[in-house]
Amino acid sequence: MDAWPYRHLALRTPRLDLRPDDDEGLGELVDLVLDGIHPPDEMPFGVEWTDAPRDRLGINALQYHWAVRSEQRPGRWAVNFLVRLDGRVIGEQTLVGHDFSVTGEVSTGSWLGRRHQGQGLGTEMRAAVLVFAFDHLGARTARSSAFVDNPASLAVSRKLGYRPDGSLVQVRRGARAEQTRLVLDREGFRRPDWELSVTGVTDCLWLLTG
Questions:
Q1: pTM for this one?
Q2: Domains, the chain, with CATH or none
Q3: Residue 176 burial (CB count, 10 A)
Q4: Are 84 and 125 in contact (CB under 8 A)?
């Protein structure tokens, strides 16, 4: 058994290559973060991590990913896929499972560097992890959420067949902010018109579905 079961896992769409984060790729990811993910007057994330001082953003991002890697275990995992276009990291797509063997449920989160937004890549990368979750892990449902002032994320969810599932309120930058909760089941998934290529999943299954 490989000491790091995610080492060979790869998801491939017509344009994108998604692989669990590694230190070399994280260096590219940090460059994207420093280039900017969203306008300074907006905050699309429930955790305001991009508000950190610029000289802390890089090390914060690295420490977060290292911490997530260290906590992988059957029944509670989060895979941060680095998304590559033409061999270069352009963003991140996360897939999370808690008590997956019982609930059959996953959740997702993602972001793209600003220069890669508005090209349909966000839809393509989320569709990739949904196909992976439903077809290779046997997921029953997938959940997501987005602030009501984040139309791009909400549009991706609509395209893929998510339906509203209530709302939640939190404090964002010291003010009240509302998120729309979303849920998607296997039957409601609006599948892409392309086939997902998946390799290296066998060594991961005990961790992802156990």
A1: 0.96
A2: 10-140+194-209 (3.40.630.30)
A3: 8
A4: no
